[in-house]
Amino acid sequence: KRFKQIQHNECNSCVGYKKENEVLKQEVGKLKEDLKNAKKERNDARDLNRVVTDLKRVVEDLRGLKAESCKAVNIFKIEDSLTEEAIISDDEPIIGSRHAVKTE
């Protein structure tokens, strides 16, 4: 049997990971919007705290994904330190840069 080298973005775990990462990034975007609105309208502190708690949870999810994944995730700090966002970086694999996959 021969083995074929494939790039990261073709490997199943990365594809699933990318989808999950997209969902989380959208969630972060929505939460950042909520945060902006809460600040603008000077909503009560409870509302602001809920948004901050949600953001922290999403960031934890992203960190968990990074640990499980063979794709590196850079977590960037955005304007106010409680908001973080993940960006997939193709050129920084955590485990080697390729996977060996069985082919017929």
Q: In words, what does this structure look like?
A:
- The chain is α+β, with helices and mostly antiparallel strands.
- The chain contains two helices and four strands, in the order E-H-H-E-E-E.
- It has one domain.
- The chain has helices at 12-40, 45-68; strands spanning 2-7, 72-77, 84-89, 98-103.
- The strands form two sheets. It has a two-stranded antiparallel sheet with strand order 1-4. Strands 2-3 form a two-stranded antiparallel ribbon.
- Strand 2 (72-77) and strand 3 (84-89) form a beta hairpin.
- Helix 1 packs antiparallel against helix 2 (45-68).
- The chain is elongated.
- It starts with a strand and ends with a strand.
Write the layout of secondary structure elements.
Layout: E1 2-7, H1 12-40, H2 45-68, E2 72-77, E3 84-89, E4 98-103
Antiparallel strand pairs: 1-4, 2-3
Helix pairs in contact: 1-2
